[in-house]
Amino acid sequence: MNIYRLAVLSDNYVFVLHDPVSNNAAVVDPAVPEPVLAKIEELGATLVAIFNTHHHGDHVGGNKALIEKFPKAIVYGGEKDRDRIPHQQVFLKGGDRVTFGDREAQVFFVPGHTYAHIAYYFEPSGDQGGELFCGDTLFAGGCGRLFEGTPAEMLASLSQLRQLPDDTRVWCAHEYTLGNLKFALTVDQDNLDLQERMTTATAMRQRGESTVPTTIGLEKRTNPFMRWDFPAIQRSAGIEIPDRVFARIRGQKDNFAG
């Protein structure tokens, strides 16, 4: 399975998956249709699946036009997003599995950003490692805002993702990394891995490079929202109870002007 990252809108990423054996394609969270259609035409492929993580317009805005072009494509989304995702046909819950080409993905129910959010984890196969498409739940250096969920729900969601292998690639849906890392340094300033990551990410962005994908291992070392039970984060929050630590730093991030 080949993965193509398409930068769209101001800071969104859309991911086109391509199975070279069948020459079929899938897309994750198509914000807009045009770049997706262009990539599929370039590949000479057929779109067979749309994998949506949640209902926000910058993740499902391309569904209608893509289905008009490829009416046999199947639209996947969370079962609790019924009637919120255009053309949704399959309603997934945590523990379900989906397939694309020769790869199988486990579905994670990860509420917090929205009450219906899901993620797709394509498990390692052969010489290919795991691939996580997590929408707006986990970001490089951060996590999504809590529009419809609670801190406890988001903590439980990230706890699931934190259990994935460290080499799992994380394909998050926005280029928010520099802002996230600036905040991270305010609550974990002595973290040498984080300091190094900030330097690296800054240089990448100056060169016009994407910081996505990241990895689960890197997030565990540098992302405060994956480190709620680390002493440095607890000291910064002034409390040790995990869900209250998480709630406090999420609130601080919401008000961070950096």
TrEMBL record:
Swiss-Prot/TrEMBL catalytic activity: an S-(2-hydroxyacyl)glutathione + H2O = a 2-hydroxy carboxylate + glutathione + H(+)
EC numbers on record: 3.1.2.6
UniProt binding sites for Zn(2+) 2: 58-59, 136, 174
Cofactor binding notes: Binds 2 Zn(2+) ions per subunit.
Entry keyword Hydrolase: yes
CDD domains with a match to the protein in the record: hydroxyacylglutathione_hydrolase_MBL-fold
UniProt GO MF annotations: hydroxyacylglutathione hydrolase activity
Reported cofactor(s): Zn(2+)
One protein family per Pfam: HAGH_C
Residue stretches making up the Metallo-beta-lactamase domain: 11-174
Residues the entry annotates as binding Zn(2+) 1: 54, 56, 113, 136
UniProt cross-references to Gene3D superfamilies, sorted A to Z: Ribonuclease Z/Hydroxyacylglutathione hydrolase-like
PANTHER family per record: HYDROXYACYLGLUTATHIONE HYDROLASE, HYDROXYACYLGLUTATHIONE HYDROLASE GLOB
Oligomer and partners: Monomer.
Role description: Thiolesterase that catalyzes the hydrolysis of S-D-lactoyl-glutathione to form glutathione and D-lactic acid.
Protein's UniProt name: Hydroxyacylglutathione hydrolase
The organism's taxonomic lineage, starting at the top: Bacteria, Bacillati, Cyanobacteriota, Cyanophyceae, Pseudanabaenales
